[in-house]
Write a sequence for this structure.
């Protein structure tokens, strides 16, 4: 059974989480990857064009009115954050991540 744990309400609470904080980072990474996978599935199912880059797939969805420009920009933003999580795991600025 999945147990829901509330997210920390303040930066100080977040910083005090220790190892749990890294679990949160991993869970966020997984959720962003799921969003990108859904975008790829929609792009493919609607035959919107082949692309190897996530950003191109997101643009296809925006261009074809599947998602709004605002949503497309937000997905690109979280994809950038995911790249930080994946490639600079030990060097993440917790204050920025908390925001």
């Amino acid at each position: 059974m999945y147990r829901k744990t509330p997210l920390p309400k303040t930066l100080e609470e977040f910083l005090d989480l220790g190892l749990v904080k890294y679990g949160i980072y991993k869970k966020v990474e997984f959720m962003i990857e799921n969003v990108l996978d859904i975008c790829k599935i929609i792009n493919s199912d609607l035959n919107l064009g082949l692309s190897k880059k996530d950003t191109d797939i997101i643009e296809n969805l925006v261009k074809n009115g599947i998602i709004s420009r605002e949503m497309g920009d937000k997905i690109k933003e979280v994809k950038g954050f995911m790249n930080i999580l994946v490639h600079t795991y030990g060097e993440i600025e917790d204050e920025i991540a908390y925001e």
Notes: The chain has a mean pLDDT of 84. DSSP finds five helices and no strands in the chain. The helical segments are 11-15, 19-45, 54-63, 69-87, 94-98.
